[in-house]
Design goal:
The protein has 368 residues and is α/β, with parallel strands linked by helices. 53% of the residues lie in helices and 13% in strands. It is globular, with a radius of gyration of 26 Å. It starts with a strand and ends in a 7-residue tail after the last helix.
Length: 368
């Protein structure tokens, strides 16, 4: 018996889900709004599933609700696509937006095959990604805490010695003997200092948990292989793996570069071609760590110190690719910085570094 397909568009919010149904032919119809809870979703699937004679396919936009709904529908044996919101085609003349219309649009686009799915990590990989993002948030909070303390001291006419970096041993030694005559000022100073200490401990705790989680990750070999590249140590490598997953899912280096948002935007019409700044439409954290790693291309190629230790015992195939990356990226930086300036050169180098990361992820030695 040939199954007939039925398409279900879902506009998902924290408390409610607007649903629309679309058959293989005809206009989509609104089903109404249900509560966003497992019991209501099971009832919806039973009502519209139609038994074994109908193949039910659902879709909703990726957003803050994550992949909980997709996993529940998968357990109910419903195919579910999570669509990339930025790549959804929308009518140019549409001026009214409601949950009902969004659900109808999703059902219609699902039937026509015009939705672009996002990558859905498994629960273990998503937990690793959550840990990586928690550590990134902790670093932001640490920087804010340090800035609050530094600005308080500046208001009191106190500044650290020249070329003293915030958080360094020299900076901590300068802070330690500071005292204030006013009890209120001393309380503020101790509170800001305590916030910095707590933020430091939080970052260290999360980094320790990241190392423990990486040891049990199925991508452990890839994390180790990425550290052969100059500028990519453990934290950068685990961030790349957590955000991108298995690099073999990208068909080519250009697709991975586009995923990072490091490719230039373009507006061309007829003979006129205009290329603008990078798109920034991809993964922001991935783009950030690649941009930080690109700074190492300023230095002459070489293998020493921590990089030599990271490459110890690594297959020769990976080391050769890493050496080629060093030479290529250094030459690109020198050429482009002289012509375009340092910021644009570093962006271009980060884009090419993404290409080398993709190439390394295709080697059997990196995914064994």
């Amino acid at each position: 018996m040939v199954q007939r397909s039925r398409f279900l568009g879902l506009d998902v919010h924290k408390d409610t889900i607007a649903a629309a149904i679309c058959e293989e032919t005809g206009r989509p119809q609104s089903y109404g709004t249900i509560a966003n809870d497992p019991a209501a979703i099971r009832k919806l699937v039973r009502a519209v599933g139609g038994g074994t004679a109908i193949r039910l396919v659902a879709a909703y936009e990726a957003g803050p609700t994550g992949f909980v709904l997709q996993r529940q529908l998968a357990r109910l044996r419903v195919e579910c696509l999570v669509a990339a919101p930025s790549l959804m085609p929308r009518p140019a003349g549409e001026r009214v937006k409601t949950d009902r219309r969004d659900a109808l649009l999703l059902a219609r686009l699902l039937r026509s095959g015009d939705l672009t799915p996002v990558w859905i990590p498994d629960e273990t990989h998503e937990a690793l990604r959550d840990l990586v993002r928690a550590r990134a948030d902790a670093k932001v909070d640490l920087l804010r805490a340090r800035h609050r303390l530094a600005k308080f001291l500046l208001r009191k006419g106190l500044a650290p010695p020249v070329r003293t970096q915030l958080g360094s041993i020299k900076y901590q030694a300068w802070l330690k003997p500071l005292r204030f005559p006013s009890p209120n000022e001393e309380t503020v100073f101790q509170d800001y200092g305590g916030a910095v200490d707590q933020a430091v401990q939080r970052v260290r705790r999360l980094e320790s948990e990241l190392r423990r989680a990486a040891e049990h990750s199925p991508h452990l070999h890839l994390i180790a292989a990425l550290q052969c590249l100059r500028g990519i140590a453990f934290l950068t490598a685990v961030t790349i793996v957590a955000e991108a997953g298995d690099l073999r899912r990208f068909k080519g280096a250009r697709q991975f570069m586009a995923y990072t948002g490091l490719v230039p935007s373009e507006h061309s019409s007829g003979d006129a071609v205009h290329r603008g700044p990078i798109t920034k439409t991809g993964n922001a954290l991935l783009r950030h760590v690649l941009g930080e790693a690109a700074h190492h291309a300023r230095h002459r190629p070489g293998v020493a110190g921590n990089l030599r230790q990271r490459q110890a015992g690594v297959p020769r195939q990976l080391i050769d690719l890493a050496w080629n990356a060093q030479q290529r990226l250094h030459l690109r930086y020198r050429h482009l910085s002289a012509r375009l300036g340092r910021p644009r050169a570093l962006t271009a180098v980060a884009r090419e570094l993404a290409g080398f990361v993709w190439a390394l992820g295709q080697l059997p030695a990196a995914v064994a």
